[in-house]
Amino acid sequence: MPAKGQHLYVRPIVDADRTAIAEFLAREAPECDPPAEGVIGKLVGDLVAVAGTSRRDDEVILEVVVVANSLRRKRIGRALIEALATYAASPAPRWLVARKEEGTVAFLRRLGFHDRGDSVVRRIEPGSDKVGP
């Protein structure tokens, strides 16, 4: 977890976040383009994580998850995915989908994703906090 007493604040991306997201990604993951939608995570007001998404039919596609290098393995990515599943349930998508990538597939499987072709997916229950396979 983050340092004692610090609370991770996760919320949807808004237009005012664009510059901060671009600067964060340039520093932490220069190969990633800033996402148009998704969620961000902040600690003590500083941007420390971004999960970018897009939508297709009844799916929310997880395009990128980036956590500040110094804060990895502190459950921040897990918190982003959980918050994303909650926010994504409106207006009624049924699946959270991610590409199978060597560096992230094991992490996503630990969060309840399962294989579907060349992707991993996790069911979203609209209208509730229930998320699962």
Write the layout of secondary structure elements.
Layout: E1 8-12, H1 18-28, E2 37-43, E3 46-56, E4 59-67, H2 76-88, E5 95-99, H3 105-110, E6 114-116, E7 119-124, E8 131-132
Parallel strand pairs: 4-5
Antiparallel strand pairs: 1-2, 2-3, 3-4, 5-7, 6-7, 7-8
State the gist of this model:
This protein is an alpha+beta fold and 133 residues long.
Describe the structure.
The protein is an alpha+beta fold and 133 residues long. The chain is built from three helices and eight strands, in the order E-H-E-E-E-H-E-H-E-E-E. Strands 1, 2, 3, 4, 5, 6, 7 and 8 form an eight-stranded mixed β-sheet that branches. The longest helix has 13 residues.
Mean pLDDT: 83
Principal-axes geometry comes out as globular
Name of the level-1 CATH class: Alpha Beta
The span between the termini is 26 Å
Major β-sheet, in short? 8 strands, mixed
Overall number of strands: 8
